[in-house]
Amino acid sequence: MATRESTSTLRVRLPALIVGIIVLIFIGFVAYALQRSQSASELGVGGRINTAGSLMRFTDRTATDFVLPDLRGGPAIRLADHRGKIVILNFWASWCPPCREEAPVFREFARRYEETGVVIIGIDIWEKNWNDGRAFLDEFGVPYPNAYDTEGRVTIDYGVSGVPETFFVSPDGRLLGKYTGPVKSVEQLVGLLNELGVAPATQLEPAEGGWKVRTSQRSHVLSCG
Predict the structure, then answer these.
(1) What kind and span of H or E run contains 186?
(2) How far is 49 from 180, CA to CA, in rounded Å?
(3) Average pLDDT over residues 205-222
(4) Nearest to 120 by CA among 157, 94, 90
(5) Is residue 13 exposed (0-12), middle (13-18) or buried (19+ Cβ within 10 Å)?
(6) Which of 83, 94, 104, 113 is close enough to 136 for a disulfide, judged by CB 3.0 to 4.6 Å?
(7) Buried b (16+ CB within 10 A) or exposed e, 169-202
(8) Which of 92-106, 167-181, 198-212 has the lowest mean pLDDT?
(9) If 0-12 CB within 10 Å is exposed, 13-18 middle and 19+ buried, where does residue 211 land?
(10) Cβ of 207: how many Cβ atoms within 10 Å?
(11) Predicted pLDDT of residue 204
């Protein structure tokens, strides 16, 4: 009799046990997926923090023009104003650790290549307060123009999914590719431009007091101070 009651009870409870096991398996799968996702990136205030670097090339894409407010309060920044030059668009945020790591790299690149037909435009995104972005620029002595994507439209237009992300625009306005993750050195940034076929049309070499810029027309020294 006891055996029959046990069997009957097991039959009643079996569906619930099966459902419980399925739920546990599903929870474990979700936890594993999240862990794998966060091994390559972390979640920041507004989006993903890109920690690993990779280059993606684009074909037949035009860089979407934009007009954004200057983060420092100057005249509005428009991409089309720089047609005829190589443009590097760097999407960043002040709360992003890799963005802080690469800020000195972009600062040094801008200093060395300021007269070589290459323009850097920083675009601050996903900030809680403009002042956080401005403090970032002051902290790292960023010399090149920086805009603030107030409504997030440019971020969406360019398909930015995390920070930092850096896009490369040709002199004729073509979107050549993007680099996801922090740029580690000036040499790496020059290498990325080379890979995309838009390297600066100059050669730089060490010189007393700075860097000697050689072009077909002139040669002068950029101060290191």
Answers:
(1) helix 186-195
(2) 10
(3) 42
(4) 90
(5) exposed
(6) 94
(7) bbeebbbbbbbbbbbeebebbbebbeebebbbeb
(8) 198-212
(9) middle
(10) 15
(11) 47
Q: Which tokens belong to 56?
A: 């993606």
Element housing 209 (H / E)? none
The one-letter amino acid code at 189 reads L
* β strands within the chain, DSSP E: 41-43, 48-50, 54-57, 67-68, 77-78, 86-92, 118-124, 146-148, 162-163, 165-169, 175-180, 203-207, 210-214, 219-223
Number of C-beta neighbours around residue 77 at 10 A: 20
Longest dimension (CA), the chain: 104
The residue assigned the tokens 């799968």 is 29
Q: Hunting for tokens 């920041």 — which residue is that?
A: 44
| Residues ≥6 apart with Cβ < 8 Å to 86 | 117, 118, 119, 168, 169, 170, 171, 193, 198, 200
Over residues 44-60, the pLDDT tens digits come to 456 799 999 999 999 99
Per-residue pLDDT at 58: 97
- What does pTM read for this prediction? 0.72
Please report, as a single letter, which amino acid is at residue 117: G
The pLDDT value recorded for residue 214 is: 47
Displacement of CA 205 from its chain's centroid (Å) = 29
Amino acid identity, residue 170?
A: S
User: And the tokens for 98?
Assistant: 């890799």
Nearest to 179 by CA among 109, 111, 130: 109
DSSP 181: S
